[in-house]
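Subject: for your reference before the review

Hello V.,

The reviewers asked for a structural picture of the protein, and I figured it would be easier to keep everything in one thread rather than splitting it across files. Below is the amino acid sequence we used in the manuscript, unchanged from the supplementary table.
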Amino acid sequence: MSAPPEWSSLDHAALYAAHLETSLAATREALSAGPWAGVVFHAGEESYYHADDMPPPFHAVAHFTRFAPVVGPEHLLLVPRQGEARLLRVDPKDFWHEPPVASPTWFAGLEVDSVDTPHLARKQARELVADLSGWVYVGNSASAAEALGIPAANREPAALVRRLDWARGFKTPYEAACLREACRRASVGHHAVRQGAREQRSEHALHLSYLEATGLLEREVPYQNIIAWNEHSAVLHYGSKSRETPKPGYTLLIDAGATCNGYASDITRTHLREGSHAVFHEAWLGMIRLQDTLVDQVRPGLSYVALHEAAFRGVTELLCVLGVLQVSPDEAFERRYAFPFFPHGLGHHLGIQVHDVGGKQLGPDQGASAPPKDFPWLRTVRPLAEDHVVTIEPGLYFIPLLLNGFREGPEAAAFNWSLIDSLVPSGGIRIEDDVLVTATGRENLSRPYLPTQS
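And here is what came back from the structure prediction:
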C-alpha cells in the first residue's frame, strides 16, 4: 500500500478551485429542476438550550460547508443560475468573543464581502439581488429566509435538495484530500488511546488523551467519542466515560474521528489485552479478516446492500465456526440468527456529515428508498460509484437485551448459551475504515495511518 500524499505538500488552492467549479456546476444543474433564479446557502442560525442563553456547539449547514470552509454561523452564499457566486461573511465585532477565525490562505475563487451582523448580511443580499422571491433558501432558519424575502414554498424545495444531496455523494479530489487528512488526524488520537489501553487507563482518561493527542476540543470532534472497556463495547452508541480503572480490562473499543475543513473521519478499532477469552480472541481475528475481505470487494457498481448481506453471512459463518451457533451456517443465515450479534448496518456514506446525505437515494430526482425488509437498519442502499466515500464497519457483539429473546422457545437450541454467557463480559468487536471508491476499485483512507492490530 503506497503512502498517501502529505497534506502539507498538496496544492490546496488548485484543489479548492477545481472543487468550487464542480460544486457550482452541480448546484446550477440542481437549479434546472425548477424555475428558480438562484440559491442562498445559509451557514445556519445558532440555537440555544431551552430557557437559557447557552448555545450547543454550532455546526454549519453542510450544503454551505461544501463551498466555504468558514467557521461560525450566519454567513450567506449566493449562487445565481448565471453569474458570479458571492460569499457574505459575518464577522461580529464585539468584546464578548474572540476574533473570527481566518479562512485558509488558499481559500479563493468566491467574491467575499465581510459584514458585522446577520442583519447587514441579509440587507446586502437584498441589495445585490433586487428580488430574492424567485430564489431558493437552503438552511435551518425560517426567520432568515423570511428576512431575505424568500417565500416559504422556496425554502429547501425537495426537487432541489434531492439533487444537491445526490451530488454530494461524489467527492472531488479536494474533498477526498480533506477526508484523508481527517483520517490522519484521528489516527494520532487512536494511537494515544491504544497506548493508554496497554496501561489499563480509564475510559475518561483515554478520552482526554485522545483530545490532547489530536489537539481537538470536545466541541470539535465530529461525533461523540466512543471509548468503551469490556461489556461497554457492546453498547453501540456508548457515550459515558467511566472514571474507574477496568478490572479486568480485556476489550477496548474506540470509535472516534476528526475533521478537516468540515469533513469528518469515522474510524473504529477494537483492541484486546492479554488474558482475553480465547474464543473472543478468535472472534476478533475473524472479524479483522472479514472486514479486510469486505473492503477488498469495494468497487464502482457494487450493490451496497449485497455487500451488507455478505457481511451478515460472514458474521453468521464465524459464529458457527466458533461454536456460538449450533446449527449449519445456511440454516443460521436463513433464520437470521446473527441479528442479535450484528444488529446494525455495514456502514454509511461519509463526508461533511458523519452519516452523509444521499445514501438512500437511487437517483438525483428520487427521495429516500426503503432499505430491504431483512436489513431495515441500513443507512445506505445506493449502489457504489466512483468517488463515493463509505464506511465499512462490520460488528459482532454479545448484547443480553437482544440475546435474551432467543433463550426460550424452539430456537433456543441453536445457541450455545453457556459459551455466550462466558463471552458477554467481553463486550463486542467493531472494525471500521473509511473507503474511497476509485475508478478501478478502492482506496482505504484510514488504514495507512491506523493498522487493525498493533
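For the response letter, the relevant points are probably these. The two ends are 17 Å apart (CA to CA). The longest strand covers residues 251-256.

Happy to draft the paragraph if you're swamped.

O.
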